[in-house]
C-alpha cells in the first residue's frame, strides 16, 4: 500500500465506524432518518475530500514521473554521447594499430625500409630546394649511383646523400632482453656504422666532382639520438672522414641553409649579369654621346653653310637691285650725240 493512501483511509474508516455505531444505537422512533441523512452528507463530504486528495496526489506523482523520465532520458543521451566518443576512440586506436603494424612491416623489410627512406628524403628535397638545385638517383663519374645529389656551387661543391642505413642491429639493440644480447647488438651496430661510413666515404666523395663531404640520411629521430648517445666516437670518426649522419629534423635545417646558399649564389649571378648589363648600357650611352656630338658638329657646319648661303644670297639680291636701278639712255639721244 502506498504511504500517501493510509492518512486518507483512516478518517474514512473512522467515519464509517461512527456511522455504524449511530445506526446501531439510534432509537426506534422517527429520528433515525435525520441521522442517516447527516451520515450521508458526511460520507459525501469525505468522498469529495478523498477524491481531491487522490487527484492532487496523482498530479504530484505524474509530475514526479515526468521529471524522472526527463532525467532518465538526459542520462541516456549523455551515455549515448559517451559511447559514441568511446567508439570513435576505439576506431582511432584500431587505425593507429594498423598503421603501427604497417610501419613495423616496412621497417622489418630491408627493401621496403629503403623505399620508405627514399620517399621521405625525396619529399624533403622537393619541398625545401628548387628543382634545378638537386638531382635524384644521380650517377657519379666513378659509376656509383647516389640517392640524391644537391647541386651546390664550388665551394663547397655538390653533396651526395645516401638513404639506406642498416637498421637491423639497432632494432636488435632495442629488443635485447639481457646484457649479453645488448652487448652483441651494440658490437654489431658499431660494425655496421663503420662499414657503411667507409662505403659512403669511398664512393660518394669524388675530388673535383663533389664536395669534400657526404650525408647519410637516417629516417628516424630515435635512431639518430641513439647513435649520438651510444656511439659518439664513431660519429666523430665519420665526421673526420667527411661523412655526416642527419635525421629528418637536422636535414630540414641543413636544407634550409643550402637553400639560402643557392639563393645567395643566384643573387650574385643576377647582380653580375646586372653589372654587365649596366656596363653595356654605359657603353651604348657613350656611343650615343659621340654620335650626338658628331650630329651637333654637323649641324654647326650646316648652320655655317646656311649663313654663308644667306650672305651670298644677300649679295646677289643687292647686285640685282643695283642692276635694276641703273638708267638706260633713250635711243634718239645716242644718235643726236653722234
UniProtKB/TrEMBL annotation:
InterPro entries with a match to the protein in the record: DNA_recombination_RmuC
A biological process term (GO) from this entry: DNA recombination
Transmembrane parts of this sequence: 6-25
Keywords: Coiled coil, DNA recombination, Membrane, Transmembrane, Transmembrane helix
Keyword Coiled coil belongs to the record: yes
Keyword hit for Transmembrane helix: yes
Pfam families hit by this protein: RmuC
Family to which this protein belongs: Belongs to the RmuC family.
Functional description taken from the UniProt entry: Involved in DNA recombination.
Protein name listed in UniProt: DNA recombination protein RmuC homolog
Species this chain originates from: Siccirubricoccus deserti
Lineage: Bacteria, Pseudomonadati, Pseudomonadota, Alphaproteobacteria, Acetobacterales
Amino acid at each position: 500500500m502506498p504511504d500517501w493512501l493510509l492518512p486518507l483511509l483512516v478518517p474514512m474508516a473512522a467515519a464509517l465506524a461512527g456511522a455504524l455505531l449511530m445506526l446501531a444505537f439510534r432509537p426506534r422512533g422517527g429520528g433515525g432518518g435525520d441521522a442517516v441523512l447527516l451520515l450521508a452528507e458526511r460520507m459525501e463530504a469525505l468522498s469529495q475530500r478523498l477524491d481531491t486528495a487522490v487527484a492532487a496526489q496523482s498530479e504530484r506523482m505524474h509530475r514526479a514521473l515526468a521529471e524522472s523520465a526527463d532525467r532518465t532520458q538526459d542520462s541516456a543521451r549523455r551515455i549515448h554521447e559517451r559511447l559514441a566518443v568511446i567508439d570513435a576512440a576505439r576506431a582511432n586506436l584500431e587505425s593507429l594499430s594498423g598503421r603501427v603494424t604497417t610501419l613495423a612491416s616496412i621497417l622489418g623489410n630491408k627493401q621496403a625500409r629503403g623505399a620508405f627512406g627514399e620517399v621521405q628524403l625525396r619529399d624533403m628535397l622537393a619541398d625545401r630546394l628548387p628543382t634545378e638545385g638537386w638531382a635524384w638517383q644521380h650517377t657519379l663519374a666513378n659509376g656509383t649511383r647516389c640517392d640524391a645529389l644537391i647541386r651546390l656551387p664550388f665551394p663547397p661543391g655538390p653533396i651526395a646523400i645516401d638513404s639506406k642505413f642498416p637498421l637491423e642491429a639497432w632494432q636488435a639493440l632495442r629488443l635485447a632482453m639481457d646484457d649479453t644480447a645488448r652487448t652483441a647488438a651494440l658490437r654489431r651496430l658499431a660494425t655496421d656504422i663503420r662499414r657503411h661510413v667507409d662505403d659512403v666515404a669511398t664512393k660518394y666523395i669524388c675530388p673535383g666532382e663533389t664536395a669534400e663531404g657526404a650525408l647519410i640520411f637516417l629516417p628516424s629521430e630515435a635512431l639518430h639520438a641513439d647513435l649520438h648517445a651510444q656511439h659518439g666516437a664513431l660519429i666523430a670518426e665519420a665526421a673526420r672522414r667527411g661523412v655526416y649522419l642527419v635525421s629528418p629534423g637536422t636535414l630540414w635545417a641543413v636544407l634550409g641553409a643550402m637553400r639560402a646558399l643557392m639563393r645567395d649564389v643566384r643573387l650574385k649571378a643576377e647582380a653580375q649579369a646586372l653589372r654587365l648589363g649596366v656596363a653595356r648600357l654605359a657603353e651604348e650611352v657613350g656611343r650615343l654621346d659621340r654620335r650626338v656630338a658628331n650630329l651637333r658638329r654637323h649641324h654647326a657646319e650646316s648652320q655655317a653653310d646656311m649663313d654663308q648661303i644667306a650672305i651670298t644670297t644677300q649679295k646677289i639680291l643687292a647686285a640685282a637691285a643695283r642692276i635694276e636701278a641703273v638708267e638706260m639712255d633713250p635711243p634718239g639721244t645716242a644718235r643726236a650725240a653722234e
